[in-house]
Q: What sequence folds into this?
């Protein structure tokens, strides 16, 4: 990945993923600063050792992040909105979309546009602003896109914020 200029997203489901896997692989030079870590929470019924979502567990995971990390939280299912707001309050970034959550509210199917508009409205109410693609590239220390088809792009539902 590194040889091809691809920036990894480190998906972690438990403290051991941070303290052992991410830390070891970063120390071995498999990523450039800053690492981008996605804390995946609330899949504990589906994945062994995964963490349920709670503000306390999220704070614990954030406290374990490598010092230069940028992070977002995948709050799977009904925890998506609360987890994103909590991530923003802790200095992280928002991640929404149908990959993580099919519902806008209980019983109402969502669209990616609805989920994205809601978190952007909440961010703006908190006096935060979504980053432009150029700003996100700068935060992640990615090269500018040399062609109309860049090697790295944020998913339609990933929102990096300007602080």
A:
């Amino acid at each position: 990945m590194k040889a091809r200029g691809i920036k990894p997203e480190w998906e972690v489901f438990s403290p051991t993923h941070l303290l052992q896997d991410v830390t070891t692989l970063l120390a071995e030079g498999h990523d450039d600063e800053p690492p981008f870590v996605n804390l995946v929470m609330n899949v504990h019924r589906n994945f062994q050792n995964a963490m349920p979502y709670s503000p306390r567990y999220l704070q614990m995971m954030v406290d374990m992040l490598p010092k230069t990390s940028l992070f977002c939280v995948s709050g799977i299912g009904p925890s998506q909105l609360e987890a994103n707001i909590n991530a923003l309050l802790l200095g992280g970034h928002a991640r929404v979309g149908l990959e993580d959550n099919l519902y806008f509210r209980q019983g109402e199917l969502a669209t990616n546009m609805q989920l994205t508009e809601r978190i952007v409205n909440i961010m703006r109410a908190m006096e935060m602003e979504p980053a432009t693609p150029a700003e996100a590239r700068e935060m992640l220390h990615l090269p500018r896109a040399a062609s109309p088809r860049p090697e790295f792009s944020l998913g339609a539902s990933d929102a990096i914020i300007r602080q």
In short: Confidence is low (pLDDT under 50) at residues 150-154.
